[in-house]
Task: inverse folding
């Protein structure tokens, strides 16, 4: 009986991780339009090309190359879990104004992209490499490249840079978790259903994720990856983030060797640093780019 109960708990939590409920796409679109972060006539007027990038994991990634500038300066944007590429447009607007072209795309299982599960960066980092490769094929090796990620997208960015290839010229990690196991433990502490069995729950989820999706929770660790990143990283987090605590970004900043910068925003909850601190966010980005000759 205990074995059946444990299996049920492991399946339950692994399902919650692998198939985390996604936000309705129309709701995301309507939210961004109503908040004037997506101004349709401005977005529609931008020169762009929608393409399918082949993932090494066997599905297609919906990708949009947005090129209002003649330069070879580009930013690739990685959205957070449950969101899609529309959520990246607010960041895109910031960088378009700074003279960069942009690439937005849907992570696996999100938006229009394929893929059956969410892996919080493990497989997503390889998809990001595929998008980077597609951009280089279009522009040439002399592209000036930044990668910006929000939440899971920030974790993906760091995992890509520290465990796949440090190919970009700079990275911006906005509210990443530092370690997936630690993040799950933090989330379970807020879940009465799982709190009493937190250690067992994570161990069981790890077993079932390895069995069902081919990776371990321990292998999703930005704090391990960040040790290998040579290029400059700007770390951003809201002080009062209730979903991923700010101390996770602070620990990543401390671990990073070489060029780096930290911005802890005074206002906003999770993934709201730009929205609630727009001037300070933009100024910090400018300082970071200038400090690193970008």
Result:
């Amino acid at each position: 009986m205990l074995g059946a109960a444990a299996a049920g708990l492991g399946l339950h939590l692994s399902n919650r991780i692998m198939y985390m409920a996604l936000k309705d796409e129309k709701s995301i679109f309507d939210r961004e339009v109503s908040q004037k972060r997506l101004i349709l006539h401005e977005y529609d007027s931008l020169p762009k090309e929608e393409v399918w990038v082949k993932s090494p994991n066997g599905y297609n990634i919906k990708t949009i190359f947005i090129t209002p500038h003649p330069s070879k300066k580009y930013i690739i944007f990685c959205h957070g879990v449950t969101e899609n590429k529309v959520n990246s447009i607010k960041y895109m607007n910031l960088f378009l104004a700074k003279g960069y072209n942009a690439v937005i795309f849907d992570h696996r299982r999100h938006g229009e992209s394929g893929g059956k599960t969410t892996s919080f960066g493990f497989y997503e980092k390889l998809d990001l490499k595929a998008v980077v490769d597609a951009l280089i094929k279009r522009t040439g090796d002399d592209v000036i490249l930044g990668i910006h990620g929000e939440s899971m997208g920030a974790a993906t960015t760091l995992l890509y840079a520290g465990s796949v290839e440090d190919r970009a010229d700079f990275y911006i990690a906005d509210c990443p978790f530092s370690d997936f196991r630690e993040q799950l433990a933090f989330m379970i502490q807020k879940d009465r259903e799982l709190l009493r069995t937190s250690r067992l729950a994570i161990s069981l989820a790890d077993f079932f994720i390895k069995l069902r999706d081919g990776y371990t929770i321990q292998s999703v660790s930005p704090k391990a990856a960040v040790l290998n990143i040579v290029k400059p990283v700007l770390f951003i987090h809201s002080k009062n983030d209730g979903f991923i605590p700010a101390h996770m970004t602070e620990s990543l900043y401390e671990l990073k060797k070489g060029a780096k910068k930290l911005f802890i925003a005074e206002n906003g909850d999770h993934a709201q640093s730009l929205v609630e601190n727009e001037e300070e966010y933009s100024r910090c980005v400018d300082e970071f780019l200038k400090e690193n000759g970008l």
In short: The mean pLDDT is 94.
